[in-house]
Amino acid sequence: MKIGNIDHVAINCRDLDKSLDFYGRVLGLKKLQTVDCGDFDILYFALPGGGRLELFDYRGRNRNLERAESDSGLRHLAFQVEDVAAHEALLRSEGVEITLSTCDLPNLGARVLLFLDPNGVTIEFCEKLVD
Questions:
Q1: CA diameter of the chain
Q2: Are residues 122 and 116 in contact, defined by beta-carbon separation less than 8 angstroms?
Q3: Is 64 helix (H, G, I), strand (E, B) or coil?
Q4: How many other β-carbons are positioned within 10 Å of the β-carbon of residue 14?
Q5: Dist. CA 78–CA 93, nearest whole Å
Q6: Phi then psi for 85, rounded to 5 degrees?
Q7: In whole angstroms, how large is the CA radius of gyration of the chain?
Q8: Dist CA 62 CA 71 (whole Å)
Q9: d(CA 85, CA 98)
Q10: Contact of 16 with 4, CB cutoff 8 Å
Q11: pTM of the model
Q12: Spatial separation of the C-alpha atoms in residues 130 and 104, rounded to whole Å
């Protein structure tokens, strides 16, 4: 398996205004775009080396899951790969728990796969959709 650089780090925000101030003003990261995903927004910042920081804003709502996707803190760790679907097949053959099968997210311009590490940490493999 060949894994590339980290593509992005995603964080669910408890207080979006404080998060924007911290990452923008305090850390000096450049704010990129905001993507409206319906029930939530993703606000992007550029990270050194070409990666991105994703701040998830659920506008105060929580999905009432055991560990809700909208809880504050680290959401997932993402890696760029080639051929997400092929990686999914390999991971399944190893008995890895897949939490979101390979799917295209056109509004984000990505094909993604989510799975759990042995500690329950969500990992994403992603590749850019070709126009």
A1: 45
A2: yes
A3: coil
A4: 13
A5: 21
A6: -60, -40
A7: 15
A8: 7
A9: 12
A10: no
A11: 0.68
A12: 11
